[in-house]
Design a protein that fits this description.
globular; 1550 residues; 10-stranded mixed beta sheet; 53 strands; 8-stranded parallel beta sheet
């Protein structure tokens, strides 16, 4: 057992200073738990299992060609992680063993462990000694050790500082156990047991997890990985290039972490998989796995089972945790693909085309386990099988080739390996929920259907379900349900904290309309912990949402992947499926009527037993009494579970003068956590019967913290009461049904904001942050939920409950019939405090209209009246003023400060033209910047006015709707802002109803007047952090002079997201507060999503400083900034730039009626109605005065703080103090020290922006080749023709050229075909983005995602290269999300496209030969012809344009989403238009499909279906009628708009 020599290395840290490589611990607001990652992944495999070094070399080349999908941090030579998984190279190891003096037995009789060990020799020896002892104790033979040669000469300092020593241990199979002979996994299982024991025992001996890690321990596979760049892996591990190092499988991964301090062990592959994506439900999955372990029985593991528990290592990433679960399920006896199907099921519930057997498999396993939900492309291998699976919504790219020499090449991109055209037999893609599986033993690809149908048929799942699973309809009706008590409704409403506003603004609209009501103008009331009014516990919790690292999903348009179903009853044993294990009651939604609850309470169905436990405690009791009541509830639950109860109903019926309700959320979550700890949680379902919950956020909290079902009995009685009082004009049955529908859909929308598809996965997943709750309360009752500034304890919660109770049951009978007014949603005299109230609005308008700085100071004094009201976190802070102030004249001038000011992103469409242009003129006058919002911009504004004013908005926003995002629009920007989220509704999209899409709005948005417009919840080209980096690159290419700004919303973990955004090369990062936002939003989002900007800004600044990324980016904040004091505190917390939205609107005349979404603004600010717009009285001078007053206010504060420039304030939290004079019972428990934390870093680490980002444009194909090549055309339109090679690393080809053309020649570009370039090979992402008129790109090869994004008039031809042997129309030639936001141009694609083809197309014409799921989604204009099959959910959200689809099989109607479209036969005009498109396609691409169609056109045209949006068709008919009546031009358009606006049959928009 000798040691090999380590290759010559760079200087190592001194022995004994082994670094963790884990990065800094939690400090201030930074928490490493919120690190995210994404990546590129792929594999190369030989179909017949033939091993060779070439497979390994090819895989390394794949990895190197995905290097742009990984990331590097503050050091250009430190990567986030890269690695490779291969089969054990026996010949190589046998030779190495012989050289080292030991002998290896045949393959399969030994395992190899790849170990990361401490640098300190003594500690390393201790680890090795303990491992050797364990190997012996487990009955194995220690064959030998080997040093792994490494070459770290190219590594950065951070990677070097934490580099471990790498050694391999060789372990011989011990004496066989009796059952081993029949079990091929027996040795793997014993090695797994050994590893689990070592992870616990050896780690403990070596002082922490960072110094001992087992990268792999297997007799089949081996992992080489580290904190490396993709291009460093090959050189770092010389083993991988040795001629004997062979494999038939090689799986690779390149990591993009949001932090710069990823650890060596966090690199992928893990033990069995490599993961590109996020598991959004990880907390719930881990809790459920922990709880169900008590039920596990395993013949495979036998007595070893107890020694490997717990299964999940909670210190790992979400990827490591799903790897833990997958590895365990496989070793416990499930096949690898079967285990994948259990963890990541297809969306089976609404899949009409799925077989009954497969549906039954998924339905059965849903009774045993919830999905691990989130966007994911997972590549996996056990050494014999290798494959990949995509999440249910297809939110990650995965493409593959099958070659003539029996290779399968799969990767996140196509073109990662050069393969001659004649060698490619098939080009495919992973489809949503589908699996690619290569069986190297059988020597074939197993098709998804064959694979899954075989697994589904292995057991009679359908019979088991029929025999055992129940629905509520199968239960007998209840003998009786609780009768409503109308005499005490108001009394109990008081006890549960109802207000009249809840009834009028929340419940009545839900019961009348069946949807959650909307609000607008953000939220300027105090957060719960600062409110002087008693708050329900729900109000202390903020919904989390997806941004950047993971997309939200559209629960409306993509409903087919969502599910609101829940299951009641005890779970079975996950490891031993039996028929009776699906004995559960299936609910269609988690919300129960009184009758349904009574059915459950009275059920005597075999296998179910219900018990009711009271959620009550003595009225007026303190925190100790409340805690004791929850403890009593937990003890009673333990007794009930022990007695066989599996339906626990927690009820607060019985509230009265002596008994108060335990807050339902406290009871449910406290019991849920208690049962998890007791190992009994999976034996019982928790059903809440409560008078407290009534709105969507309440239900989301209860489900998210453990309730399987909720019966809001007082909500139903309240509906009865509203009808009786004639406040609701529908029947009770209708009201209750619509209220439940609105609530259930609202919960699904809440979960979709986090990118979660199923309520079952959301259940118990705790996707919230506590804001203003003490750590003691959270750790006991809401374990694992972040709470960062302390706050209310049980005494405060009990006191608030007591206040409600006294209001219901006063010592002396009072007016029991009047609820409090409320005032949380709209200002009401005597209601909740609002910062913008009639008094502050009046004072501000008086000041700006009169140019009166003294009046402004009165306004500011009232806003900051902190003795009367504490409305914001910043109100708790004081300044540490300088002993000697600086003279005001020495402070930098107002002009310098004004350059940092911006107005918010309010679209032309949400506010009037007059308001929008007034803001632009004002900001241009003061040297600041106004923002277009997401509605595009009228090109007329690009020309200055005669008086010198400019109406151009310096900031051009790019949002998910991509309205009006043309190459001209982008070239007119000083700054381009990518809106990832907005404060009022983070994680959601938006909708501009058709009645607000006036002709002038439609013109700017490239859409149709009168037709509603949808902004999708996600950017469809940003499903991950590396996608955002790509969009930043795209936009920077289109306009290199513009800064790229990324807008995020404050939430826990936003700092680590921002670190990833900085690594993705954003120039500016905006952190918006939860309280801003002028746009229409569901009320639960306005009130319960996002955090104050103070928290998000401080966390982001601290995290960027820790990452040494702060010097690369400018930080900006916005969200109810109202005064100079607000600006100065923002600067002290880290901001360099500042945004204002509500304030400028008020300055222009807004009176905060909060009816923006209704188009009824009484002052002409937030309306398009010409009559109301005439009431607009705002002037640019008013906004100029507002901005100047704030700048002067800032200067005065700077002088008092002793600084001369604003830069001196940035991040100086030492100049802030927390007030110590608070006489506020709830606020007294807050701890704002994390907000003021200053990270300790080296002096050279920047704390402000001091350097520009390196966007790498100088390496782009446009800059190195195309601009020079096309110089004659750019100069004077001289035609240019050329042919060029292209590879996947050439990204965004054409965008820089496009920008240059439009800058020189205007939006009309060049004459047709002036520039004709042919590219040969595989084009990188965003090929032909923003291409303008006059440019034709032909691609002979294939393309990756985001093809022709924002196409602006150019022409695109894509076809297979000469020599191709596959059938083009059956192969994938372009990736996902092609033509996103295209506004004009044409394209001809010979072959099939991936998912979301022509998403949000608003004017381009495209022909393609097949498309995946969600084709033409959200399309608003243009034409698309599909000459072959279309995937599911075609035309979802499509409101304009026309699609022609060849329906050869006659089944297209079943795959089209017809909510907003009609399917029609072609008329003569349609047939002519389609014929012209097909003819051009045939000529340009040589398509045999097109020629065959043209050759039999009279027959072929009858097989096409015309997809026509209903609203669009209605507008076209109205326009035709107007023209027939003699109108023309704008008059005809306006007449058609008015006619359509009045049409009650409209469907687009709510």
């Amino acid at each position: 057992m000798g040691r090999s020599k380590r290759r010559k290395s760079r200087q190592q840290p001194p022995e004994g200073q082994a670094s963790s490589g884990e990065g800094p611990a939690q400090q201030g607001l930074y928490d490493p738990r919120y690190e995210h990652d994404a990546c590129g992944t792929g594999f190369v495999a030989h179909l017949k299992g033939r091993r060779s070094p070439a497979i390994v070399a090819d895989a390394l080349t794949v990895l190197e060609n995905l290097s742009h999908r990984g990331a590097r941090g503050a050091e250009p030579n430190t990567g986030d992680g890269a690695g490779i998984l291969t089969q054990l190279p026996h010949a190589f190891f046998a030779a190495e063993a012989a050289r080292l003096g030991f002998h290896l037995p045949p393959p399969g009789d030994y395992g190899v462990g790849m170990l990361f060990l401490p640098r300190d020799a003594a500690r390393r020896a201790a680890c090795e000694g303990q491992l050797a002892a364990l190997i012996a104790a487990e009955g194995h033979t220690l064959l030998g050790w080997r040093d792994v040669p490494t070459d770290n000469r190219d590594l950065g300092a951070a990677a070097l500082a934490s580099e471990p020593v790498m050694r391999q241990v060789f372990i011989g199979r011990g004496p066989a156990r009796p059952a081993d002979d029949a079990d091929p996994l027996a040795f793997e299982r014993r090695l797994f047991v050994l590893r689990r024991l070592a992870e616990r025992q050896v780690v403990g001996a070596a002082d922490g997890p960072q110094v001992f890690y087992v990268a792999s321990l297997s007799s089949c596979t081996l992992v080489y990985k580290g904190m490396l760049l993709a291009e460093q892996l090959r050189a770092y591990f010389p083993d991988l290039s040795q001629p004997l190092f062979d494999s038939a499988i090689a799986l690779v991964h390149s990591r993009f972490s949001t932090n710069t301090f990823p650890a060596w062990k966090r690199a992928h592959p893990n033990r069995i998989l490599a993961h590109n994506g996020e598991i959004n439900t990880i907390k719930g999955n881990v809790n459920a796995m922990k709880a169900r372990q008590a039920l596990f029985r395993s013949a495979a593991f036998g007595p070893d089972l107890a020694r490997v528990l717990p299964i999940i290592d909670e210190d790992g990433t979400d990827s490591a945790m799903i790897d833990n679960a997958l590895e365990f399920l496989v070793l416990a006896g499930r096949s690898l693909p079967e285990a994948i199907m259990m963890l990541i099921p297809e969306p089976w519930e609404k899949h009409a085309e799925m077989s009954a057997a497969k549906r039954a498999f998924y339905a059965y396993h849903s009774a045993l386990m919830e999905p691990w939900d989130g966007p994911a492309s997972i590549a996996f291998s056990d050494g014999a099988l290798v494959g990949a699976v995509l999440d249910r919504n297809g939110l990650r790219p995965s493409r593959y080739y099958v070659t003539a020499d029996d290779r399968v090449i799969m990767a996140s991109e196509v073109g990662v390996l050069d393969v001659p055209a004649g060698q490619v037999l098939y080009k495919g893609r992973l489809q949503p929920g589908r699996m690619l599986l290569v069986d190297t033993v059988a020597g074939r690809i197993v098709a998804d259907d064959e694979l899954k149908e075989g697994i589904a048929a292995a057991r009679p799942y359908a019979d088991w379900l029929a025999d055992h699973q129940l629905t509520l309809a199968a239960l007998p009706p209840a003998a009786g349900e609780h009768a409503p008590d109308h005499d005490t409704v108001t009394e109990r409403q008081h006890a549960f904290g109802y207000t009249f506003e809840d009834l009028r603004l929340i419940m009545a609209p839900m019961a009348r309309d069946g949807i959650e009501p909307l609000g607008s103008m953000g939220d300027d009331t105090p957060v719960a912990v600062l409110s002087q009014r008693p708050q329900l516990l729900y109000n202390y919790f903020r919904q989390l949402f997806a941004q950047v690292t993971n997309p939200p999903i559209d629960a409306i348009r993509e409903e087919l992947v969502t599910s609101s179903a829940m299951l009641l009853g005890a779970e079975g044993d996950l490891l031993n499926p039996r028929p009776e294990d699906c004995r559960r009651i299936r609910l269609q939604t988690p919300l129960l009527t009184n009758a349904e609850l009574a059915q459950l309470r009275e059920t005597d169905a075999p296998g179910f037993r219900a018990a009711t436990l009271p959620m009550l405690y003595p009225a007026g009791g303190d925190g100790a009494a409340l805690g004791a009541a929850v403890a009593t509830l937990c003890a009673a639950a333990d007794d009930a579970v022990a007695a066989g109860v599996n339906l626990l109903i927690l009820s607060d019926r019985g509230v009265g003068r002596e008994l108060a309700p335990i807050p339902a959320l406290l009871a449910v979550s406290g019991l849920h956590q208690h049962l998890i700890a007791a190992g009994t949680r999976t034996l019982v379902s928790l059903i809440v019967e409560s008078g407290e919950p009534r709105e969507v956020h309440h239900y989301a909290c209860l489900i998210g913290y453990g309730a399987e079902a909720v019966n809001p009995y007082l909500a139903f009685e309240t509906l009865h009461d509203l009808i009786a009082r004639r406040l609701l004009d529908v029947s009770y049955e209708t009201a209750a049904a619509k209220y439940l529908k609105a609530s259930a859909k609202g919960v699904v929308k809440v979960i979709s904001k986090m990118g979660i598809s199923t309520v079952q996965s959301y259940h118990g997943a705790q996707i919230f942050e506590a804001l203003g709750l003490s750590r003691a309360v959270v750790e006991r009752y809401f374990t694992g939920t972040p709470t960062r500034i302390e706050g209310a304890d049980l005494d405060v919660l009990a006191a608030e409950a007591a206040q409600r109770h006294v209001a219901a049951y006063p010592p002396r009978p009072a007016n029991g019939h009047t609820l409090e007014v409320g005032g949380r949603y709209q200002y009401r005299n005597g209601g909740e405090f609002h910062l913008f109230n009639p008094s502050t609005i009046h004072k501000l308008q008086q000041a700006v209209r009169g140019g009166d700085y003294a009046a402004y100071k009165q306004y500011a004094a009232e806003v900051h009246d902190r003795e009367t009201h504490l409305a914001t976190l910043r109100a708790l802070l004081e300044f540490r003023f300088a002993p000697a102030p600086v003279p005001l004249e020495e402070v930098e001038p107002a002009e310098a400060i004004l350059r940092r000011f911006k107005t918010g992103a309010m679209s032309y469409g949400s506010i009037s033209r007059e308001a929008h242009e007034t803001l632009a003129i004002a900001m241009n006058r003061v040297g600041g910047k106004s923002n277009t919002g997401e509605g595009g911009e009228d090109p007329a504004r690009y020309v200055p006015d005669a008086n010198g004013d400019s109406r151009l908005s310096a900031i051009k926003q790019v949002a998910s709707g991509r309205f009006g995002v043309t190459i001209e629009y982008l070239t007119q920007a000083q700054e381009i802002q990518i809106k990832m989220a907005q404060g009022a509704k983070p994680g959601e999209g938006g909708q501009l109803p058709g009645h607000k899409v006036y002709p002038w709005i439609a013109r700017v948005r490239h859409s149709t007047p009168g037709v509603g417009l949808i902004s999708p919840p996600p950017h469809h080209d940003i499903y991950s952090i590396e996608d955002l980096a790509q969009l930043i690159y795209d936009l920077k290419s289109a306009n290199p002079a513009a800064r790229i700004n990324v807008k995020l919303v404050s939430e826990v973990g936003v700092g680590t997201v921002a670190a990833g955004v900085a690594k993705g090369h954003a120039d500016v990062i905006l952190i918006s507060g939860h309280d801003g936002g002028t746009g229409a939003s569901p009320v639960s989002s306005i009130k319960h999503a996002g955090l104050p900007w103070e928290l998000g800004l401080a966390e982001t600044h601290q995290t960027l400083v820790l990452n040494n990324l702060r010097s690369r980016v400018r930080l900006e904040t916005d969200g109810q900034l109202k005064t100079g004091r607000d600006v100065v505190i923002a600067a002290l917390l880290g901001a360099e730039e500042f945004g204002f939205a509500t304030g400028p609107l008020v300055a222009m005349g807004c009176i905060m009626m909060r009816v923006c979404h209704l188009d009824t603004c009484p002052v002409g600010v937030a309306t398009q109605n010409p009559e109301l717009r005439r009431r607009f009285t705002g002037r640019p001078e008013h906004v100029v005065n507002f901005m100047r007053f704030i700048a002067e206010d800032v200067r005065e504060h700077m002088a008092a703080l002793g600084v001369r420039t604003l830069d001196e304030l940035v991040g100086r939290t030492d100049l802030l103090l927390v007030r110590d004079d608070l006489a506020h019972a709830k606020a007294a428990g807050l701890d704002l020290s994390p907000l003021l934390f200053r990270p300790e870093v080296a002096p050279e680490v920047g704390r402000t922006c001091t350097q520009a980002q390196d966007h790498g444009l100088e390496h782009s194909l446009d800059r190195t080749t195309l601009l020079a090549l096309c110089a004659p055309a750019l100069a004077d339109a001289t035609p240019v023709t050329a042919t060029l090679p292209i590879r996947n690393v050439h990204r965004t080809v054409g965008a820089l050229l496009a920008g240059e053309i439009v800058r020189r020649h205007g939006p009309q570009g060049l004459p047709e075909d002036t520039i004709r370039l042919t590219f040969e090979g595989s084009a990188g992402q965003s090929f032909a983005a923003f291409l303008p008129p006059g440019v034709t790109f032909t691609l002979a090869g294939d393309a990756n995602d985001y093809l022709a994004k924002g196409l602006s008039g150019g022409k695109l031809i894509i076809k297979p290269p000469d020599g191709t042997v596959f059938v083009p129309e059956e192969n994938i030639i372009v990736g996902n999300v092609a033509f996103y936001g295209a506004t004009s141009g044409e394209a001809y694609i010979r072959g099939a496209a991936g998912e979301r083809f022509a998403v949000r197309n608003s004017g381009a014409s495209a022909v393609v030969e097949a498309v995946g799921d969600h084709g033409c989604e959200y399309m608003t204009g243009g034409r698309v012809a599909v000459l072959g099959p279309a995937g599911r959910n075609f035309a979802a959200g499509m409101s304009g344009g026309v699609a022609y689809v060849l329906d050869a099989a006659g089944d297209f109607a079943g795959r089209c989403n017809t909510d907003m479209v009609d399917l029609l036969p072609l008329d003569e005009a349609d047939a002519r238009e389609l014929n012209d498109m097909v003819w051009k396609h045939a000529v340009y691409t040589g398509s045999t499909v097109a020629w065959h169609l043209l050759g039999a056109w009279d027959e072929a045209r009858g097989r096409f279906v015309k997809v026509l949006p209903k609203d669009y068709g209605r507008v076209l008919r109205a326009l035709a009628e107007a023209e027939a009546a003699g109108l023309s031009g704008d008059e005809a358009v306006m007449a058609a708009f008015e006619a359509n606006r009045r049409d009650l049959a409209r469907v687009g928009g709510n």
